[in-house]
Specification:
Structural class: alpha+beta
Number of helices: 10
Shape: elongated
Number of strands: 32
Strand content: 35-45%
Distance between the termini: 56 Å
Length: 674
């Protein structure tokens, strides 16, 4: 009891109050400089949202409460003191309430578009589990909160440990349940995509059988990076080159370990037949089908996996086959296999189904194909396929119709000898230099921190490792950006890992808030400084509407205009209430991006030449407006607590000056007057 009493007295002491107030003042002053140097997100990460800042506020609240309670029973002259301390407690309660339940989010909206979602700075991983063999085929979703911090993770090595090391970052294993394990290894929020260096080979071929090798010939295989901010090619990106000897070289990047293994084992066996042989790989199993025996529309099972493959079409000019892969209880996926340009095969990546098409050059169907030596489709010439595996290592396989040599590793600098037929010749090649691609044709270059950099239109990158039932894949995953939530998720923004009788797809999404009303951006307006391209002021002209969703297309269309022509401009926010929850939101004009003109990806994606309501011709430019949506439920408590503090201080000064002055001093003037 004595120990508890001493602790109680210590918590109520004036010395603790002075120390906490000085510490709080120092932290707030320090936070001002941090925000000036690193931005608002950084100061919240390092200070305002940290556990140690919350601890200071909690200790201050306990000190104030104990200082008031220890003076029980209270006297009349303590009225001002009690009002002041009660005001501090109310103010702290309002701050805690706002921190726990408040909303400070951004609402990006393109001209001519409608939204009802505001997005916070936080994100979460979404794991979607697709079972293959469950009786009901129910899909389950796992949401995993993810706090990354405001910087590229490599920057923390150069920053001081305090306070940055005390901020919350979700690193390492952040999910481990039901044989699903998710690890986060690295994070880039400010980066640039650079063209990856080409794969450089040295190739030497003898002039004749038994002859010596000629001078080495350099062969460069460069995968061109896709153009445009939302480029998401439906087919794999690859590169090819024909050496002077006529040998063809191809190069592409494997999506995962399944494609790496398929590259090595999914070769043909036996006779290829007149129309060739299709080889499919799924979950460690290889399935071979003769196209001659596969009728269009016929669905063949892929073993006991529950998957089926349907032959759709054969193209003799391109030597290509179109298939439909039917997963259990899910929509079919299209697969396109090209015999002579395998680097452009369209695989069913999300389900881990990979295929290859092998065609006999002696088949009569190949007569229409260009067989000149310089042709990329010369069937008579041998072909060396090179792939970057999921582990970053190179592998190769050799195709010399109708013979197939399985894949092997290709270390940098190791000589590889092959024998070329018709006529017999010797060939030696090796990889001279190679830089692993982090995405086909692309490598990511982290950039120095710049708090004044404009808000990016692409999401940050996360290096993740996902394990499902013992199968592990490691990949760079791009977060979906809040301004592009209505666009389809690209392959860079989703990955899938196949486990035992199930498939897990992962995406990284921003946390969203439904504000309860729909905002339609009719027009964005800006005024430029004279003689410059800098905006001196800008505003958004919006309508508040109700919408209906088209049941066939899923598109939202304006049903009724509730209020039109509302102007939101700098330093003039508006207030709107959510009719369902009663929450009152203040909407500010924060920033903008654009303009984009016809031909720009963003313009074509959002407007695409369509007419907006009340307009006779498509707009010549388009903007993206960023609005800030703020909900502060503790604002009333904070204002009331501040007024109580002012009233308490005034009461203390007033009552000490008159009512509770020492009796002798108060009676002195009366005696002198008498």
């Amino acid at each position: 009891m004595r120990l508890l009493l001493r602790l109680y007295q210590a918590l109520a002491s004036m010395y603790l109050a002075v120390a906490l107030l000085l510490a709080l003042a120092a932290v707030l002053a320090w936070a001002t400089f941090v925000e000036s140097a690193y931005g608002t997100e950084a100061v919240h990460f390092a200070i305002y949202d940290s556990w140690w800042f919350a601890l200071i506020l909690a200790l201050l609240g306990v000190n104030v409460l104990c200082a008031a309670l220890i003076r029980l029973p209270w006297r009349r002259h303590q009225t001002g003191f009690l009002i002041t301390h009660a005001g501090i407690l109310v103010l702290l309660a309002g701050c805690i309430y706002s921190a726990q339940s408040g909303i400070d989010a951004q609402m990006p909206v393109f001209e001519g578009n409608t939204t009802h979602l505001a997005y916070e700075d936080t994100r979460h991983f979404q794991l979607t589990v697709y079972p293959d063999r469950s009786p009901d085929g129910a899909v389950s979703v796992i949401d995993i909160p993810f706090a990354a911090g405001p910087f590229n993770w490599e920057m923390y090595k150069r920053l001081p440990w305090f306070p940055w090391g005390l901020g919350r970052r979700d690193r390492g294993v952040i999910c481990n349940q039901d044989n699903i394990r998710l690890e986060v290894l690295d994070y880039h929020c400010q980066f640039q995509t650079q063209q990856a260096a080409p794969l450089r080979l040295q190739v030497a071929v003898s002039e004749s059988a038994g002859g010596s090798l000629g001078e080495p010939e350099p062969v460069e295989l460069a995968i061109e990076r896709p153009a445009g901010p939302h480029a998401d090619p439906a087919m794999n990106l690859g590169a090819r080159k024909v050496a002077r000897s006529g040998v063809r070289f191809t190069f592409w990047i494997a999506e995962d370990h399944a494609e790496t293994e398929a590259f090595q084992v999914a070769g043909p066996e036996g006779k290829l037949g007149r129309m060739g042989q299709i080889v499919l790989y799924l979950r460690g199993q290889v399935f071979r089908f003769l196209v001659d025996e596969w009728a269009p529309g016929q669905r063949l099972p892929l073993g006991a996996t529950g998957y089926e493959a349907e032959f759709v079409q054969f193209n003799p000019q391109l030597l290509g086959a179109v298939l439909m892969i039917h997963p259990p209880r899910q929509a079919p996926r299209r697969m396109i296999l090209l015999a002579e340009v395998p680097e452009f095969n369209q695989q069913v990546v999300d389900h881990g189904v990979y295929g290859s098409y092998w065609f006999d050059a002696s088949s009569p169907l190949g007569e229409g194909i260009d067989r000149r030596e310089e042709s990329l489709h010369n069937l008579n010439q041998p072909r060396v396929d090179v792939i970057q595996g999921a582990d970053g290592q190179l592998r190769y396989r050799f195709w010399q119709s109708p013979e197939f040599t399985p894949g092997e590793t290709l270390p940098i600098g190791r000589r590889t000898d092959l024998t070329l037929d018709a006529p017999p010749r010797a060939m030696r090649f090796y990889a001279e230099s190679f830089e692993p691609h982090q995405r086909p044709g692309v490598r990511f270059e982290p950039q120095p921190f710049d708090p004044k950099a404009p808000r990016p239109l692409t999401g940050p990158l996360v290096l993740a490792r996902l394990t499902v039932d013992g199968n592990t894949e490691q990949f760079w995953l791009e977060a979906q950006q809040s301004s592009a939530m209505k666009t389809p998720v690209t392959r860079a923004q989703r990955r899938a890992v196949t486990g035992k009788d199930r498939r897990v797809q992962i995406t990284l999404l921003p946390d969203s808030v439904d504000v309860g009303f729909h905002v339609y951006l009719d027009r964005f307006q800006r005024t430029l400084d004279p003689g410059s391209s800098m905006a001196s002021s800008y505003s958004s002209l919006v309508d508040f509407v109700t919408v209906k969703t088209d049941p066939t297309t899923g598109e939202e269309r304006i049903d009724q205009v509730i209020e039109d022509g509302v102007l939101i401009t700098l330093n003039q926010p508006i207030t709107r209430k959510d009719p369902a929850t009663g929450r009152s939101f203040r909407i500010y004009q924060e920033a903008f991006r654009g303009p984009w003109k016809p031909g720009d990806p963003f313009y074509d994606e959002q407007l695409g030449g369509r007419l907006l309501p009340g307009e006779d011709m498509p707009r010549g430019e388009m903007f993206l407006s960023w609005l800030t949506v703020n909900y502060d439920p503790g604002r009333g408590l904070k204002y009331f607590g501040s007024l109580m503090i002012v009233a308490g201080i005034a009461t203390m000064f007033y009552m000490r000056a008159y009512f509770f002055a020492p009796r002798a001093r108060r009676a002195g003037p009366e005696r002198e007057a008498a």
